[in-house]
Design a protein that fits this description.
Blueprint lengths: L24 H17 L10 H12 L1 H6 L15 H13 L3 H40 L2 H6 L6 H21 L2 H18 L7 H11 L4 H28 L16 H15 L33 H4 L3 H14 L8 H22 L13 H17 L4 H23 L6 H19 L5 H27 L37 H8 L5 E6 L1 H11 L3 E4 L11 H9 L3 E8 L5 H9 L2 E4 L2 E5 L3
Parallel strand pairs: 1-2, 1-3
Antiparallel strand pairs: 3-5, 4-5
Length: 611
């Protein structure tokens, strides 16, 4: 970062990666990665199958290669999950190699978290030194929503890793105007699209702007390189879209969540503009049970990331990151175009602002755990801004900006911790007092030697105490369901149990034992059919059999149709129909009830469909 506090400073000097590595760096990096691995892997199997919706699809992928390719909910390949399957590929291959169980399902997510921390360290270290890299890595590792998602089987873990990989490649590309590195960054974003569709592209404006502004070559070449990277993005994301479109629809599963069996329509509709603007099938924070519903993001607006839904997930260091971004851009306003400090601020700042504002104002379905996609940007900005302001602390404006970062963090963390007043009440007061004293020390006119180090250590302790404590509490508890949240059980919300009613047929990832025994004894292609994916998933995980999830996630998808279902029944391919489930009042349910006799198995109403 180049400051103009008192006089123009020189452009960025020798990159940190080219300088001699400090002797303590390998030890520091080893401790960071080992600590992250322990945090993410310890007691991992306590969460069981976590989100049964995705776990059932992974189990199906271990039984059928076609199910693995398309992300089917069942090995019979009736319908897919409502996301592209990249994250399922990783978990499914793990299950095929090590056998399907809780550990093989969740361990890949934890390892993706460790890789993300390492890549963030490597990215920040290149131009800002090992110390800043370690701070960035630790800030990401100890973000509560990161701890939550890297111990869970949602797609967000792989998404976050791919976004950090894209940032690393973009940083390398900006250094020497490298089109190959820029295309690699675009490829990472292409696979991020295949993980969670348009959310994987929200970082694109920041990446492209950083290269367009700071790459050390002419404007024409910069534009050409960006066009080449755009082609790489289209190819890396589009190959699977084309595969789905060209594959005969009758021999592949229906694309869950779409209205016309199209992956592209799913990307632009339900998982695209529908998420941003809301509408049918997308009752988000502004619509589902009102704007105050914390499971769906709460009310839209600029303060959403600090609210009851998302605040404790992501915002512990967010105020400091915003101060660092504003101060950094101001102090580098007269820097040369290719200044690498400003390029980093554009990259990470663009990531934070575009993604953060999208999350803040999107009116469709959004959940608190989505904010894990902000964690790397927040961590990088805090580390970069803190390091550069510390180096420039001889100037009063730099000291004041650094003191502001420290104090707003302490004050906001105090506010977050006060939301659970009975949970370690001493912690919030310690954070506030230590942070306030650290800010005063840093802001003092004469700060030198040991006193400066005391202020720095106090700032780090107060800044990380709240988020670390919340993260440790998150890791110590099992999480399941479709909408997990972080923090201690006293924090309330959906945290430990996920979305209410998500389990069906005996609960999340479980089934009535009598019903499970009945299905386990079947020999048909599908043991049963039931409305809604969560009910079907519970049965599949409990029995290892194939169950048709009529209508997909919420029972509303047109798959299978009544005619298709009747044909499968006539062919003797489905043993039972189980009444109820999500969206259970469909035409298939009516047809079954009119033509077959109901019996009771355990607590469920079952129809025997066998000839």
């Amino acid at each position: 970062m180049t400051t103009t506090l008192t006089r123009p400073a020189p452009a960025a000097s020798t990159p940190a990666h080219a300088a001699r590595r400090p002797r303590w760096e390998p030890w520091g990096l080893g401790a960071l990665l080992l600590g992250t691995a322990l945090l993410y892997l310890w007691g991992l199997s306590a969460s069981g199958y976590a989100n049964s919706f995705y776990a059932a699809a992974v189990q199906a992928g271990t039984q059928s290669w076609k199910a693995l390719l398309f992300g089917s909910l069942d090995p019979g390949n009736v319908i897919t999950v409502d996301k592209p399957p990249a994250a399922l590929w990783v978990m499914g291959l793990s299950g095929r190699i090590f056998g399907f169980n809780s550990w093989s399902l969740l361990a890949p997510q934890a390892l993706e978290g460790v890789l993300a921390v390492w890549l963030l360290f490597a990215t920040v270290r290149r131009h800002f030194g090992a110390a800043a890299g370690l701070v960035a890595g630790a800030a990401l590792a100890l973000t509560p929503v990161a701890v939550l998602m890297f111990r869970f089987d949602n797609p967000d873990a792989l998404l976050t890793l791919l976004l950090v990989a894209g940032a690393y490649c973009t940083t390398r590309a900006v250094e020497r105007a490298g089109p190959v590195w820029l295309s690699l960054a675009a490829t990472a974003l292409g696979f991020a699209f295949l993980t969670k569709m348009l959310q994987g592209l929200l970082v694109l404006p920041g990446f492209a702007l950083a290269y367009l502004v700071a790459a050390p070559t002419g404007l024409a070449r910069r534009l050409l390189h960006l066009l080449t990277a755009g082609a790489a993005l289209v190819v890396s994301a589009g190959w699977f879209v084309a595969l789905v479109a060209l594959w005969p629809a009758g021999s592949r599963p229906y694309i869950g969540g779409s209205t016309n069996d199209s992956l592209l329509e799913l990307a632009l509709g339900y998982n695209g503009l529908g998420r941003v603007f809301g509408g049918t099938g997308n009752p988000g924070g502004g619509g589902f049970n009102g704007g105050g519903n914390t499971a769906f993001g709460g009310a839209t607006g600029v303060t959403r990331l600090f609210g009851a839904s998302m605040g404790a997930e992501i915002s512990w260091l967010l105020p400091a990151a915003l101060v660092a971004l504003v101060a950094g851009l101001w102090f580098t306003r007269r820097a040369p175009r290719t200044d690498r400090g400003r390029a980093a601020l554009i990259l990470w700042g663009g990531w934070l602002l575009v993604t953060g504002l999208t999350f803040s104002y999107m009116s469709g379905i959004t959940h608190p755990y989505y904010t894990v996609a902000l964690a790397p940007a927040v961590a990088a900005l805090v580390a970069i801004g803190g390091r550069e302001l510390w180096r420039a602390r001889a100037a009063l404006p730099a000291r004041l900006a650094l003191a502001a970062m420290i104090f707003v963090t302490a004050a906001w963390d105090f506010t977050l911790l006060a939301g659970t007043p009975d949970w370690h009440p001493w912690l919030r007061w310690t954070v506030l007092v230590v942070g306030g004293l650290a800010a005063l020390l840093v802001a003092a006119v004469e700060v030198a030697g040991r006193l400066a180090v005391v202020g720095l250590v106090a700032a780090l302790l107060s800044g990380f105490a709240g988020t670390a404590a919340w993260s440790l509490s998150t890791a110590s508890q099992p999480h399941a369901g479709s909408i997990p949240t972080s923090g201690p059980s006293s924090a309330g919300g959906f945290g430990r149990g996920g979305f209410p009613g998500g389990g069906g047929m005996g609960g999340e990832g479980s089934a009535d034992p009598d019903l499970a025994a009945l299905l386990s004894a079947t020999t048909t292609r599908w043991a049963a059919a039931v409305s809604g994916a969560t009910s079907a998933a519970s049965l599949e995980l409990a029995t290892g059999t194939s169950v048709i999830a009529i209508g997909g996630w919420d029972g509303s998808d047109p798959a299978p149709t009544l005619a298709e279902f009747q044909q499968l029944v006539a062919g003797g391919e489905i043993a039972y129909y189980i009444a109820g489930g999500r969206g259970g009042g469909n035409e298939i349910a009516s047809w079954v009830a009119a033509n077959y006799t109901a019996t009771t198995v355990g607590a469920s109403t079952v129809y025997d469909l066998r000839p």
